[in-house]
Amino acid sequence: MSALQDLEQLLEDIKNKPASKTLPEGFPSEIPVSLQGIRKRLAFLLEKTDMDFPYLSGQQPFSDVSRLEGNIENYIGMSMVPTGVIGPVSVLGSMAKGDFYIPLATSEGSLLASYHRGARACYLAGGATSVCLIDGVQRSPVFKFDNLGNLGTFLVWIIGHLDEFRRITESASRYARLTDMKSNIEGNHLILTFEYHTGDASGQNMVTICTDAICQYIIQNAPVQPRFWFIESNFSGDKKATSQSFANVRGKKVTAEIMLPEKLVTDVLKTTPVAMAEYWRSSTIGTIQSGSIGAQGHYANGLTALFIATGQDVACVSEASVGITRMELTSDGGLYVSVTLPNLIVGTVGGGTSLPTQKECLELLGCYGAGKTRKFAEICGALVLAGEISIAAALSAGRFTAAHQKFGRKR
Ligand SMILES: CC(C)(COP(=O)([O-])OP(=O)([O-])OC[C@H]1O[C@@H](n2cnc3c(N)ncnc32)[C@H](O)[C@@H]1OP(=O)([O-])[O-])[C@@H](O)C(=O)NCCC(=O)NCCSC(=O)C[C@@](C)(O)CC(=O)[O-]
Ligand SMILES: NC(=O)C1=CN([C@@H]2O[C@H](COP(=O)(O)OP(=O)(O)OC[C@H]3O[C@@H](n4cnc5c(N)ncnc54)[C@H](OP(=O)(O)O)[C@@H]3O)[C@@H](O)[C@H]2O)C=CC1
Question: One Pfam family this chain carries (predicted)?
Fold first, then answer.
């Protein structure tokens, strides 16, 4: 199918999305942490997905340490992070379509219960729409000149060589494509921002390698030489929350939404749409006063847990957890909720994605390997939406502290 046909299909699917759905036979979430709970949940997942998780379940010890090459130095062993599953999370996206059981690795009690509850509310409301809109990963080298005249001559030459830079990119990587270049001048400093599509990899390493190859060509051929240059100027937003990335894209930009009927908010979330909209307004004003980039509740919670489970670079939660949550009353007394994440740096190849438990977790989502990154990004959007709904429900109903007293402490 062409991109236009994909889009037409998505629009048709959104038009026909049901306003409600019945939950399938229960995922055994009610059984507390115990050997029996683990057995039941693994048996449930085996039946649903035909996966038996040899590494995650501990049946198979990890011994093939050669698989870690490229992932770590000075290795001594694996850190174990408790991992659970929430779901089903129902997603309608351009690539993610269906019900997913999402693995989350965390040591924060209440987190999975909260995301599970939000996912349940979204499921009953017909499932979340979650769409990956655009993508792009940047690297921003800086060049220093004696004066503006030299800088200008250099930049004019650079602008005339974009096609050559595209060719260099294609010889440095089979998958990276140079899509844009922007310049930023400050005194005698020039920052060039190269933006790429990085296939199914999250791409931070690829963009460094490709940009370095371009810079080597520039240094060898440009009519004017900079006094010095660095491969990264700290402008690209790599592992930092920045206003610039927030206003554009870094990685994938995803937006997700749901309409929650009033009765569902009352029954499942134990609050009201009015209270949730009121909480959202107050918390958004609080966020603005704090000087935060974006306005959201706890994207970092779900994303960090999913990133650990699936071998993403967890440090990229710095930028990935920036975004905007919106909660508004609908004309029939329900609640519209949306989340928008413009900086979702994720991949389904490369990085830590082929490590033993991480690969199993990506496979659980049907997201391991080539052709799966947009799907994975859309699942991230639906997960974050579920988390925003549940935490706002708890806070709006005055149940937040009690939940953490119950789930977040050893009894
Ligand atoms: C904890 C709940 C879910 C209770 O919620 P509840 O509605 O009182 O509980 P419930 O017993 O009636 O259960 C409702 C549903 O919750 C789920 N649920 C309930 N219990 C479990 C469990 N044991 N295991 C798995 N799922 C569970 C489950 O979906 C269940 O439905 P069921 O499946 O039974 O039909 C709710 O109060 C809640 O979501 N609270 C919010 C907690 C939260 O989101 N915390 C985020 C971490 S806080 C943080 O990191 C810092 C932050 C974000 O606060 C920073 C800041 O903003 O300042
Ligand atoms: N160097 C840096 O500046 C930084 C690096 N990192 C680290 O970089 C890693 C992430 O970088 P990333 O570039 O994603 O990972 P990798 O360095 O693992 O690069 C991806 C690799 O997968 C290959 N590949 C195979 N199939 C595909 C496909 N379908 N789509 C895309 N690539 C494919 C690429 O081929 P090919 O070789 O042809 O491109 C490349 O070799 C993480 O480990 C992260 O921690 C994080 C931040 C900064």
Answer: HMG-CoA_red
